[in-house]
Structure formats: structure tokens, C-alpha cells
């Protein structure tokens, strides 16, 4: 009865498999305003690249006659708008994931809704994309909603964007109109830190410059949309990165096996490598990398594994296993960029569940809230953050957790906010920094677009970790130089002996540098009497300038 | 089947197979990615659940899902039972395969049938496919989930199967009445899944969301996952009903006077209740041949599902009511 599936004996089969699998996968999100023709464009891509099955085309023909807006022609938007409500209203409500492949590569296209009402669904889709395909109608121009989408792409760290100026037929294939839109778009996107921009004039209805080259726009000689997508190399954070694996599950089938299961989200691990468990900071070494297919010697980001450790350390779900170099931050206060998705606004003092990787903590909103103005791209102080707004916010957690900056490690630097009563997902965010000071290089490695500029960057230094050891030591030495000079002068005036004054001053340097340093460190641990971090009112924070 | 295993044993030593295997191993990064992502989802679901279950439909997707579940918790066995909704109209081979497979793996199987529907005589032939699916599948599933108080149910649905499935989240929230509200799905950015729910509410989790039919076949090939033989072409007795090739699996299927089943070489791309599942004519007897046929096919895999044609947006409606 059981049939073991048989290995591909036929060489042709194996060759086909190989050819199919070597195509690099590209996940791109199609976004832009409602009615600018996204679903139509994607339907057109699928149809023209021969990705549709005959029965799907037949069903589409029936649907097009019933709901379509294209007369006798096929209405491609009905291919993707799979929900009944979407077809009735002819809009996209939720994000759709479609798969297609050409001879060059495989694609997952994420069709994001354009309606402001459904921006949360757009952000859901965009969070997993490598590249953004932004659609703008030539007769519509850059809308507020399109700007909102661009800010979300920038928040999510997507640096490659292709702008398709659609409905060129409606503006008489005018090169001038196209160039005006292109210039405006480039200015807006560049300021957000999106640095790889390509623009293509198209007409999705007739397929001009989608797959085939347009006869109507001889003035454009760049690639068609599909040509561009086939060769696009999105800039993604593919740096090797430090080792990170959040523990999902403690695997204990018997008393003599204790494994920690998780997905390696960054870096590489190998047997014998020293690791630390965060937030506790306990050290151990990797004893085995266990998988169903046998133990591994090493494993890299993207693999799901089970690690066993050489020492019996205490670790559980939510803890982070990391390499000893480039350690994560342990913080109970984080400054973040947030996209808010709930009807009830985000307000200081409220509590949410913050799920970051596999750990969940209770987070309360601190008062220093600011929201981006979409037109000026400026961050401004705000009393609350309304639905579909984007801004920055500091969260105070009920316990310290291990985090990374989103730009360094996406998976340990991103989180969702869950309403503690309804359990709905109400917000998503990226860790900008913890509230401890960073070394200089860290601050400068921020994309300019997201750096908060303060007139007085040292005004708000909140935690007991705010004094580094180097700073304490430097202060000890400068203080001592001043103090010892004073001692020398006073001793000389009283005793008249340079020898005695000199030896008192030198002895004092020796002993008091040490005493002062210890004294400073003790005070650095006392949180009492320090001011809370707040952005003073009227403090200008700008985005992108 | 013995003939098949002997066939494989014979091939093990052949150099052609070794070459094919190596080339698969070298170029499997895409499948590796999908596998790791699915294992991550399965572990998240189980970690956030009080009482998880795996919905096992015996088909190829369920078989892949079960294989991934074995991998996710290795060396421990998967910490949940399997649930099969038995409409009593499944192919006999499916039930036999199910019993052998779960026994081999030592897993707990809960087979649930809607006794009430059975007593009312609901069947796919005289009651119609719509009523049968509603009572014997959708209602049966809700009964089983309520009875055992399962709060997270893992299923093998994929986004490439159908338009409304393409819109569904990996963690798909269900109200206490098992209803799906497609307009109010929880946002699901990155790979952070919200597994929180109140008492009585549940979550359906789809670890294979991002797999395509072709990925499933390639993975079955790579991992040597056992499948019901109905997926492979063989001579079977068929009759034509509404343009679909229906295999006469037992004597419950009424034949017109004088009608005789014809023997044809057929296989199934998808499996369900036998009177509701159309076969395709094919000679593909191996996974490799199926992969080639799939690459060349002009028809989608759900075409053979009679129930999908029950009115526009029928899958979405069934899902809202609690169908998987």
C-alpha cells in the first residue's frame, strides 16, 4: 500500500530540477495608491509571462464579464483580488502572495493594498520584501498614500525601489509628464535613504514596457519592468553578521538530552564555539548541532537547528543564544521606530505586550513620542500616535531583554505590539537604539534619514550605564591633574619647600586617581537623583536633513 | 507496494541515481529555506499553544507537513496528536495508508466522523457536494476541535492553491465560533507570529503557506517521503461525471443502467472524498515524471476539486464557516 516516492532516476528530471532551483528568488512588494493599477499590473505580469493555468484564465473570463471594469477584455485585477468583498468593491483589501518564475529567476510578488484603510496589510507584506515596486498613475502623481508607503519601506530598511509610472496612455505617452513625476519621486525617496531607484514608464492595461517593449514611447530606452526585475540585485543586509539564535523550544525527550531549538537568524555557529545565553549572560560552548538529518559541524543563518551546550546552563524559550563577539544589548528601555495599526491611538503610559523574536515582555510607552509629517518628512512631538501614523517612541520594559539594532540584525531588532486585552496585533516597530550610549562609529552608521538630531545630545542620558569606564577614568585624571597642582601650590606656600610640595603632590596623584575612579563607579550605579529622558518641548528633530 | 520498493532497491546502486541525488543536494537552497521557515513556524505554533493538533488529511501536503513536524522536534517525537476528519467517503487506500503510517511513526491518531451527519444519511452522491462538505467536513472539524479543546491546529494549506488562500495569514485567527474574518486579519510582519488568543478562540497555522505545488513535489523527491499510491498513475476503473474522471473506489457509486467503468491510466493531483475528486489521465509513475508533468501542465491542481466550483468565492465562504 505505501509507495515510497522514487528518486528522480531520469536525468532529464534531475536537470529540470537543477535548472529551476538555481534561479535566485526575488521577493518584491507592489505598492502605491489605490486605483493606480497594481493588481492589473501583476495580473499582466503573470499573464504575459505565461504563469496562468487555462482553468484560471477561463474563470477570469467569467469573472471579468461579471465584475470587470474592462468591457470585453480580461480584468487582471480579479486574478489577485481573491476575497468576495474585494471583487464587489474592485479594491484590494489584503495582501496577496503570488509565485511566478521566468527563465531567469523565481519571484514572489506581494500585492499590497493601496487604500489607506488597509495600510497595515501593506506593511505586513513589505516587511518580507527585498525590493519595492512602487506604482504611480501618470495622471495622478505622487499621492499622500504613496508617500506613506515610501516612509514604511524606508522604516523597514528597503533600499531598492523601482518606480513604474503607469497609465502613460492617459497622458498621451508624454515624456515630459514622466520626467516631472520621476524627478519629484527621486527627491522624496532619496531623502528617505532609498538609494537604489529605477524608473520605468508603463501602461499595464496594454502591457507597454511590462514584458514587451512599448512602441508608443520611443523616447524611453531603459529596461522593461520584467527585464529589470529579472536582473535586479537588491541591496539587502547580507553581511555575515554576529551569531544569533532565539530559543523557540527546549527539547527534552529524556533526562540526558537537553537541546535548544531555534532558527539561526544571523551569522554562523560551529561545534565547540563559545556562546553566551542572553539576557542572563551565562557562557558555554556548543556541544552538538542536532538535526533530523544528522549532526552538523556548522550551520549558518536561515537554518532551523537544535543546539546542545557543553555546560548545564539555565536557558528557556525567549532567551537568545549569541556569539561572544558583537554581543547584543541587554536593555529594559528601547528607542524605536513604530508603525501604528490600531484604531485606539498609541499614548504615553499605556501598556502593551512587546514580542521581539521569541521573547514577550510588557512594555509601557514613555512620554517622548514623535510622529512623522508625511509632507515635510519632519518628526514632530506628539501627544499620541494615530492609526497608520509612523514615528518614534521609547518603551520601558518590565524586564531586560536582548536586542539588536534593526539595521544590524533584523530578526532581533524588530517587534510587534499586542493589545493585552484583545490580543490583536496593534503595532510593529524596529529598534533604533537602547537607551545606553553607543560608541561613536555606531551612531554614524545610522542612515541619515532616521537619525534623530538633537541640539543637545547629552541632555538626556537615562540609565545607570550612562557613564562608560573610559569616561570615568578620563575624568579621574583631569580632576587629579587640577587637584594635584592645587596641592603642590598650597603645600609650597605653607611649607616653602618645593621638595615636600612635590612629593606630597606625586603621592596624592598615585592614590587619589584610584580612589576617585572607584568613587565615580559607585555613583554611576546609583540611579537616584538622575533626570528622566525627555525631549524638551519645541526641540527640533528633523528627518532626512 | 512491494514492486515499488524493489524498484527503488534496484536503483540504489545505479550511478545515474547517485548523480541525480548529488545535483539535488547541491542545488537545494530554495527548499532548505522553505524547510527552515516551516520548521520555525511549527515550533512557534506549538510553543504558544496549550493544546496543539496537526490536521492530517493523508494527502501529499499533509505528508510533507508531518515530515517537517518530525524534523522540528527531533530527537523528541512531535508533541501533538494527528486529527483526521473521516467523511467515510475517502479512498480505501487513503485510510489503509493512514493507519500504517501513524502506526509506523508511533503517533497518536484521532479519527473523527460526524456521527450525527452519518445518522442523517448525508453523503456526497444524493445530498450534493455542498451539503456533504459542510456537514461531514466543516462541521465535523468544528466538533472535533471543540470536543478536544484544541487551541492551535496546524494544516497543510498553501497560498498558491486558491485565491482566498493567497490572502490568508500563516497564523490565521478564528473566533470562538471558528469563524474567519478576512477583513480583519491580524497584521503579521516579518516572522513574528502572534499566537495569543482568549479562551475558546483558536488559531489555524499554515506552515506550508509559501510552498508551491512544485516545491512540494521536489521536496517529496528529495526527502523520499512516503505517499499514497493514488498520486502515481496506474490503471484504475473510471466513469465520467460532469466532465470529471471519477474512480469507482467501491460499490457505493451508482452507475447508470448499462454503464461500465472504463480502465484508464490515471492519477490524482489532489485527494479528497472519492466521488468528489477528479483524476487526470497520466502515465507519470514516479515523482520525477510527476514533476515534469506539473511543469508542463496547463491546469491548476484544484481543477479536479468538484467542491471548489460550488458558486463564486466558494472557498472563501467555506473557510469563513470553518472549513480548512
Mean pLDDT of chain B: 83
How many H/I helices of chain A?
A: 12
Write down how many β-strands of chain B occur, each being a DSSP E stretch of 2 or more residues: 11
Q: What is the alpha-carbon Rg of chain B in Å?
A: 20 Å
In whole angstroms, how far apart are the ends of chain A?
70 Å
Task: Tell me the radius of gyration of chain A.
Answer: 29 Å
The SSE string of chain B, one letter per element, is HHHEHEHEHHEEEHEEEEEHH
Structural class of chain A: alpha+beta
> What global shape of chain B is seen?
globular
Strand order of the largest sheet of chain B: 3-2-1-4-6-5
Secondary structure: helix percent of chain B = 25-40%
| Shape designation of chain A | elongated
List how many beta strands of chain A DSSP finds: 24
| Proportion of residues in helical segments of chain A | 25-40%
| Largest sheet: number of strands, sense, barrel closure of chain A | 6 strands, mixed
Strand order of the largest sheet of chain A: 3-4-2-5-6-7
Structural class of chain B: alpha/beta
Uncertain residue ranges of chain A: 1-21, 437-465, 532-545
Q: Which pair of protein chains has the largest interface, and what are the residue counts? A: A-B, 86 and 97 residues
CA-CA gap between termini of chain B? 31 Å
Biggest beta-sheet profile of chain B: 6 strands, mixed
Quick structural gist:
The complex is a heterodimer of chains A (545) and B (324). Chain A is α+β, with helices and mostly antiparallel strands and 545 residues long.
Task: Tell me about this structure.
Chain A has 12 helices and 24 strands. The longest helix of chain A is centred in the last third of the chain and has 27 residues, at 469-495. Chain A has helices spanning 11-21, 38-48, 54-67, 77-80, 84-89, 119-126, 144-155, 175-191, 225-231, 440-444, 469-495, 498-524, and strands at 2-3, 25-32, 96-101, 106-111, 131-137, 160-166, 196-201, 244-246, 249-254, 257-266, 268-270, 274-278, 282-290, 298-300, 304-309, 320-323, 329-340, 351-356, 359-365, 370-372, 379-381, 390-403, 414-418, 425-434. Chain A is α+β, with helices and mostly antiparallel strands and 545 residues long. In chain A, helix 11 packs antiparallel against helix 12. Helix content of chain A is 27%, strand content 28%. In chain A, strand 6, helix 8 and strand 7 form a beta-alpha-beta unit. In chain A, the strands form 4 sheets. In chain A, strands 3-4-2-5-6-7 form a 6-stranded mixed β-sheet, with helices on both faces. Chain A has a 6-stranded antiparallel β-barrel with strand order 8-10-15-13-12-16. Chain A is elongated. Chain B is α/β, with parallel strands linked by helices. Helix content of chain B is 38%, strand content 14%. Chain B has 10 helices and 11 strands. Chain B has helices at residues 2-12, 15-26, 29-47, 60-73, 92-105, 115-119, 129-148, 213-223, 287-296, 314-320; strands at 52-55, 82-85, 109-112, 152-154, 171-174, 202-205, 227-228, 234-241, 244-247, 262-267, 280-281. A 6-stranded mixed β-sheet of chain B has the order 3-2-1-4-6-5. Chain B has a 4-stranded antiparallel β-sheet with strand order 9-8-10-11, with no helix packed on it. Chain B is globular, with a radius of gyration of 20 Å. Chain B starts with a helix and ends with a helix. Residues 1-28 of chain B have low confidence and may be disordered. Classes of the chains: A alpha+beta (545), B alpha/beta (324). Strand 1 of chain A pairs antiparallel with strand 7 (227-228) of chain B.
